[in-house]
Amino acid sequence: MPDAPLVEDYHDRTAGSRHFASPIVFWDETLRDGEQTPGVHFGPEEKLAIAEKLADAGVPLVNAGIPVVSAEEAASVKRLASAGLKCDILAAARTVAGDIDAVIASGASHIAIFVAASEVHLRYKLKMTQEQVLEASVRSVRQAKSAGLHVAFVTEDTVRAPFDFVERLYRAVTEEKADRLVVADTVGIMTPLTFRWYLEEFRRRVRPKDWSVHCHNDFGLAVANTLTALEVGVTSPHVCVNGLGERAGNASLEEVVVALETLYGVRTGIRTDSLYELSRLVEELSGVPLAPNKALVGYNSFSHEAGIHTHGILAHTLTYEPLQPETVGRHRQMILGKHTGKAALAEKLKERHAEASDAVLARLLQEIKTGSESESKAAWTRFLAAYRARFEHPGLSDEEFWRLARAAGVTGGGT
Ligand code: MN
Who is most buried in 62, 316, 353, 393, counting CB within 10 A? Predict the structure, then answer.
């Protein structure tokens, strides 16, 4: 009888339902949507450092920001566009002539022109009619195309907008030779099944050649929805390192890439072993710490403490790990603590060719368990207090705001 495989892999049973584009063009949003994470600001040198790492990792397209936002932002985009990076640099603009001029002046080769599409955005935010949005979109795409830019057209809140309007709008910009069409789930309300339906309907009505999705993580579904979109055949997913972005963030670059590579065997062109370093750099420069249990790049993702698990891992890593930590540039960690078992201890001793009888091992194990159970939480409590102070009130303090307001000449409002 032939040897049975160690694990069954059923992904090939569903291969017929997947239609990946080739190549998949990863569009990184860390420096734009990621920077819009509350409290986050990247200076020009920081943006350059992150863009360099992204390019080195093989990410082909990087959104550098919105030049019209500020002089510093315009300088950042210019810096990235002229740095000779191995990736294309994109900058974003509203459907406003001045915004598009700022992108042209920045030297970016790619532009994303965005406008809202849902009724709530049109009526309450833009105060524009569908006809006005349509007209502004057509005019803006025309302006950017005539400057020779690669043009992506984005609607915010696409998936909550009337489909007939979406169809009309995207067909109109396609006639103006927009190069790429972006479907945005701006508030993260799609589920994989509904998003599949939506995208298939979009393809049937609009017939996009090159298209993107922009998925938010409000319900924790950004990565799942992005994978769904790629299964449908979307060519260019928006991603952010560490899943940064507005509110709960965007689809995480590392999770989408590694899921494609490891679960489906799709070649992404991204060097997965550079993802951990990239993640740490963005953690440091953004000031947004990773959740320890974050997939792939979280501190615990390849750590084992429980005796049963450690024993299994030491016998064969497939028991409790779906991929090797080295895949993302990391190493496995065995944690000694309350849940440690004998196998981990024996392994630890073996590393240094140390020896111990069963009785000694049992005594040592008891010491470790008792030690971890009686460990003081004082240091942890202090750390958590500082962490909460930073994240419960990010940005300008109320006090600082009123000091600035008074200095600027605001009067009244009590003391
Ligand atoms: Mn967004």
Answer: 62
Please tell me the distance between residue 241's alpha carbon and the centre of ligand 1 in angstroms: 14
Q: Where are the domains of the chain?
A: 17-286, 303-373, 378-407
Residue 396 has pLDDT above 90, yes or no: no
Report the separation in Å between the CA atom of 186 and the middle of ligand 1, taken as the mean of its atom positions: 5
- If DSSP codes are grouped into helix, strand and coil, which group holds residue 211? strand
Do residues 92 and 103 lie in contact, with contact meaning Cβ atoms separated by under 8 Å? yes
CATH of span 17-286: 3.20.20.70
CA dist 212 and 196 (Å) reads 14
For the chain, what is the total number of helices (H) and then of strands (E)?
16, 10
pLDDT band at 1 (very low <50, low <70, confident <90, very high): low
For residues 201 and 159, is the Cβ–Cβ distance under 8 A?
A: no
Closest by CA to 105, choosing from 135, 153, 73, is 73
| Cα 152 to middle of ligand 1, angstroms | 15
DSSP conformational letter for 10: -
For residue 10, how many C-alpha atoms fall within 13 Å in the half-sphere facing its CB? 0
CA 206 / ligand 1 centre spacing (Å): 22
Predicted TM-score (pTM) of the model is 0.94
Mean pLDDT of 48-67: 98
How many A from CA of 314 to the centre of ligand 1? 42
